[in-house]
Design a protein that fits this description.
With 171 residues, the protein is mainly beta. 5% of the residues lie in helices and 46% in strands. A six-stranded antiparallel beta barrel has the order 1-2-5-4-3-6. A six-stranded mixed sheet has the order 10-9-8-7-12-11, with no helix packed on it. Strand 1 (5-15) and strand 2 form a beta hairpin.
Amino acid sequence: MGVNLYAVGKIVGCFGIEGFLKVQPQTHSRERLQALRHVFLGMTADAAVRCDVEEVRVQRRNVLMKLVGIDDRTSAGKIVGHHLFVDQSEISRPAEGSYFIDDIMECEVWSTEGQLIGNVEDVLKMPGQDVWAVRNGAKLHLIPAVKEFVKEVDTKNRRILVQLIEGLIEE
């Protein structure tokens, strides 16, 4: 499948006994997930398979989703960690200075001093801002995705330039 799919959520847990999934939105609007009638489910876009959406509940803290064919907690538990993708035709472009998670995943992250920090491994949705998890071997660095640190994002060349401050990353 893959090339035209974009991540809109990650399954982070189960809810109840009827197969509801707790979804961590990876989109600017949690309510956007309510309009979905089908999604592609998989660990990666290339391995994703189409699933019909039975129900979506946007709650204060959670987004709960029920997929057709996932009818109990055991079935739901087997897909925790998978991502929810939508086709490119169903997305709206992010605002200036914002990026699709898929556009920054695996990008090389360099400091303005020319040091390779690592590659974006994950995007953590935090209350104040997103945080990019950047891995270099065994080291994992957490870099807030804010303009004070992120100086340039070149999605075409898969390269991000960040301004480091003392203590932001450990050597």
